[in-house]
Amino acid sequence: MASTNETPATFQPLPGRTFDRSAAYHASLQALLDLVGAEPPDVDEPDDRLFWRHRARRMIGETVARRAKHPTGVRGMPDEWFEPLIRAAVYEPDPSFNRQLVEPAIAAFGRRRVQVALLDYLDTGAPADAAGAARAWYWTSIGVRYLPGTTTMTPESAAEYEAVSDLRERYRLTALRRFLADDDLDLRRCILPGLTLDPQMYPNQMRDQVAQAVQIARTSNDDYLQHRVEIQVVPER
Question: Number of C-alpha atoms within 13 angstroms, CB side, residue 147?
């Protein structure tokens, strides 16, 4: 029998941001440090902003997570922490580092509230905000757990998964609409990795829009969009 050797798909890293928001992001972290009462980073080199931000994110996240573990839990969280925490996660330019802000926010305020806030940014925010929301959304997904030796979710995991099913649907529809409506390159780059390209996952009246999104990415002058869409596109059934 002849064998076929297929090369596994290699994902290109998400390119750097096309919009420099470093000053606003730095300010948002500084304001959060003050707001949550976290110790400011002790950095020997004052010009080393990347290191300062890494320490600041960690200190903010640890402070919020520690408060969330208090016996009062979500009920004891100061509500005024929520919006600045989400804003900082949206402003964070790195799709890996924003995890240090998103996961403490979920622990403190609940997954649903965090997802709704990010959806609002994606739906109506400026392109840079919508791009940041798409990057942050990845870390709000549920880590599904299965019964031993099966592909059946545990009852707890199934309940948690179902509790936000409507928000996953809203994200799918909103992401597709925004990808088509806004030609901002950074926004499209950030949306595409999490964009469902299976027409069967959309209402009948939106299925043609999936083909439009694929065509936009394939005919783009951007190497990342061209590369990524071919990995994600769903073969015709």
Answer: 7
Compute the distance between CA of residue 85 and CA of residue 102 in angstroms, rounded to an integer. 8
pTM score above 0.85: yes
Over residues 167-211, the pLDDT tens digits come to: 999 999 999 999 999 999 999 999 999 999 999 999 999 999 999
H or E, element range at 9: none
Query: 146 has which bridge partners?
Result: 153
CB 163 within 8 A of CB 222: no
Distant-in-sequence contacts of 42-51, Cβ < 8 A, 24+ apart: 49/22
Pair of tokens at residue 112: 């649903």
Q: What is the mean pLDDT of residues 99-125?
A: 96
Backbone angles phi, psi at 153, to 5 degrees: -65, 150
Q: Which SS3 state, helix, strand or coil, does residue 153 take? A: strand
Query: Rounded distance, CA 117 to CA 189, Å?
Result: 21
Output the DSSP codes for 68-111.
HTSTTGGGGS-GGGHHHHHHHHHH---TTTTHHHHHHHHHHH-H
Burial of 82 (0-12, 13-18, 19+ CB in 10 A): middle
